[in-house]
Amino acid sequence: MALPAHAATVPDAKSLEDALYRKVNWRIVPIFILCFLFAYLDRVNISFAKLEMQSDLGFSDTVYGLGASLFFVGYFLFEVPSNVLLHKMGARIWIARIMVTWGITSACMMFVQSEFWFYTLRFLIGVMEAGFVPGVLYFFTQWYPSTRRAQVNSYFKSSICLCGVVGGPLAGLVLGHLDGALGMAGWKWLFLLEALPSIVLGGVVFWLVSDRIEDAPWLNAEEKSLMATRMAEDFKPSGKSSFAEIWREPATYVMSAIYLCLVMALTGLLFWMPQLIRSAGVTDALHIGWLTMVPYLVAVVFNLCVGYSSDRRRERRWHMAGCALLTAVGYLVCAMTAGDLPPLMIGMSMIMAGIIAWMPIFWTIPPRFLAGVAAAAGIALINSIGQLGGVIAPFMIGRVRDLTGATTPALYVLSMVSLLAVGLILWAVPKVHYRTQLQGDEAQALPVAEATEVPSRA
């Protein structure tokens, strides 16, 4: 018996749409993965440079922690203005500008000789990089419907894992084999060589990225029409579309608090992972670099699986809470086994897996209640407030090490911060923001009470 015509065409239409978005993914996502890779290399190479730079320049752990933190002060102050300009000028021009200027500023770190210039350049790197991550996330909201955004965010945020996989061994090789070449210390070569690709990639973004679907020369008219239709059918935020309104939206502050916890948990590990491994008895810089790969390799697999599960199940809150809980347990394991390498590696892998999978799901929620310039500015505001966690965590750990000679108390604090995030996620994220849009038969099958619930929280 022949199938009804509509039954035969639905799978074909779905397959064609999936094929189209795979084409878009291959065109857009690899460029921004590379950009984010070198953004993170330029941001965290200070953690590897510390192994030589600190002794060469006579910096204490407190000085190092403060310098690492000042990046986030510059990032915080200029994040919202940067994303407002991105909304006006377009992602192509503004992201290219960001990359070129942060690459030049990061390369200048090789000339640091004093605490003043260490602090100044770390602050300026944050200023120059401000707007990159929320700019790319906002760019994705212009190209992908909400039902596809967790997975594409997962691909993008996997760059952090790629940074760990590539950055650790690369830093170990540079520090181990270029130290003294042309009369320069290894840490100076590290800053120079990891900054140059950012400048080149700025040019790649300028020439290859299109701001809007209708401007893309590599899509035909039918493909543009289909994508435009999907974007038109997508969930539309309820009215928060002006810059002034983001300050009156309670969910903005709830999401900022959750992201503050997330960034504290992330930077606490990013900037101190090599030191934690060294404290467990590993002294060779190259071996430390190879060992830092392990948590990132675990995280990239976990991240892609969680992103796929979140999109497939159309659920955000419990996926986020589970990732935050995994991070909290990971910090607890690290605190209880400090100095013992095998369990330390397990704990760091749990932390990194939880954080990296948590982040892309988190960024699917702000576009649910913000639109237009409010989306650009609101995403930047949430990101910039959250980045204050990057000021707190590295400085806190450095200060604790100077006062106690151990990192363990700070690791317990970061475990509690991650548990606080679990509570905020479960208590404060309303259903209308963490459920993705249901379409067709799925929406009809949803119980009326659930489909029409108006949240009383956040």
**Helix content bin:** over 70%
> How much strand?
under 5%
Which structural class should the secondary elements be placed in?
A: mainly alpha
CATH superfamily: MFS general substrate transporter like domains
Task: Give structural attributes.
458 residues; mainly alpha; Growth Hormone, Chain: A; globular; disordered C terminus
Task: Give a verbal description of the structure.
The protein has helices at residues 5-57, 61-89, 91-107, 115-129, 132-141, 149-177, 186-208, 221-233, 250-270, 273-279, 285-313, 317-336, 341-362, 372-404, 408-428, 431-434, 440-445, 448-451. With 458 residues, the protein is mainly alpha-helical. It has a single domain (27-210, 241-436), classed as Growth Hormone, Chain: A. Helix 6 packs antiparallel against helix 11 and helix 11 (285-313) runs parallel beside helix 13 (341-362). The longest helix is centred in the first third of the chain and has 53 residues, at 5-57. The protein starts with a helix and ends in a 7-residue tail after the last helix. The relative contact order is 0.14. The model is unreliable at 6-10 and 436-458 (pLDDT under 50).
Topology of helices and strands:
Layout: H1 5-57, H2 61-89, H3 91-107, H4 115-129, H5 132-141, H6 149-177, H7 186-208, H8 221-233, H9 250-270, H10 273-279, H11 285-313, H12 317-336, H13 341-362, H14 372-404, H15 408-428, H16 431-434, H17 440-445, H18 448-451
Helix pairs in contact: 1-2, 1-3, 1-6, 1-7, 2-3, 2-4, 2-14, 3-4, 3-5, 3-7, 5-14, 6-7, 6-11, 6-13, 9-13, 9-14, 9-15, 10-11, 11-13, 12-13, 12-15, 14-15
